[in-house]
Design goal:
By secondary structure, the protein is α/β, with parallel strands linked by helices. It contains eight helices and four strands; from the N terminus they run E-H-E-H-E-H-E-H-H-H-H-H. It folds into two domains: 129 residues, Rossmann fold (3-Layer(aba) Sandwich), CATH 3.40.50; 71 residues, no CATH class. Helix content is 46%, strand content 13%. A four-stranded parallel β-sheet has the order 2-1-3-4, sandwiched between helices. The relative contact order is 0.17. The model has no long low-confidence stretch (mean pLDDT 95).
Length: 204
Amino acid sequence: MHFVFLVEEPSAEAALSELLPRLIGQDATFQIHPHQGKKDLLDSLLGKLKGYSKWLPSDWRVVVLIDLDSGDCKKVKAGLEQVARRAKMTTKTSTTGRRKPQVLNRIAIEELEAWFFGDVEALCSAYPGVPATLAAKRGFRDPDKIKGGTWERLEQVLQKAGHFKGGLAKIAAAREIAKHMRPDRNCSKSFRVFRDGLHAMLAS
């Protein structure tokens, strides 16, 4: 099976490039197409899916991954599903019977960096000085509910540990943390939904 990932920005591309071999195995292949932010991805999504719908091989799947930011999860997901329907493509959510899903819509809550907080061991391995007890501290116990912007909180945590004094390098940090992440131990619910969705697509 071959996966095409449509993501918001290069930092998501960097993280997925490291993570995907552990998520989908060595027998599946993938491409990642980063955009210049959420607006760029959403503005071009219908056209891209319409294009794919005309020639997509039966063993190809399209995965759309966006950050929730401050949006409403149900409304954002419904919007993505509607775009897929307009493009006449089947999704994991809408597919019934023997029809195979072509599109998997997934949302990082509230941002991709929440997935990094979901694996504190990976954070500690990538950046020594990050406390191993971080996940037990108030405000960090649920990665998907971290307040104040997850990338800003990640920058604060890493700077306190002695890294990125001049500001967080999002792409470099995403790549380095993802190198150490283990999909089976991540406690971010939105990451687990993403992981399980990929596994379901592989089985379809």
